[in-house]
Amino acid sequence: MVQKIMRDTLFLAQKSERAIKEDMQVAEDLKDTLQANSKTCVGMAANMIGMKKQVIVVSLGLAPMVMFNPKIVKKSGEYETEEGCLSLEGLRKIKRYQNITVEYQDRDFKKQRQDFTGFIAQNIQHQCDHIAGVVI
User: Any idea what the CATH number is for the domain that residue 108 is in?
Assistant: First the structure.
């Protein structure tokens, strides 16, 4: 179900709780909400729809990728960029990394470890900031 976008920075600044299998509906709502906002958004975290859970979804073109409890475990190639956010107004300067390694659980809650580069890596870093309570 498409959910309303959370814009309360006090809520967004709170750390999210670990996701469990019973949070599968959060992932479905995130996917639906991302699809509904696809013209202006390429990724979402659960707190953006009012759920303090460690669930993110990122657009990979044809199909979105859902990650439960993602954690960036390796990063390299620091650079500075500007990012916008569906939950916030305007652009903000931020440091990101060109290459990251992420450990997460997939839709079956099996542990995964995957490398990402470029824009997808930047998108994942942005969503991981969300679930950590970092408001850029």
Answer: 3.90.45.10
Residue 14 maps to a domain: yes
- Residue recorded with tokens 């408001």: 135
State the total domains in the chain: 1
pTM for this predicted structure: 0.95
Q: DSSP for 102-136, please give it.
A: EEEE-TT--EEEEEEEHHHHHHHHHHHHHHTT---
> What is the chain's pLDDT, residue by residue, as a tens digit (136 residues)?
999 999 999 999 999 999 999 999 999 999 999 999 999 999 999 999 999 999 999 998 778 999 999 999 999 999 999 999 999 888 999 999 999 999 999 999 999 999 999 999 999 999 999 999 998 8
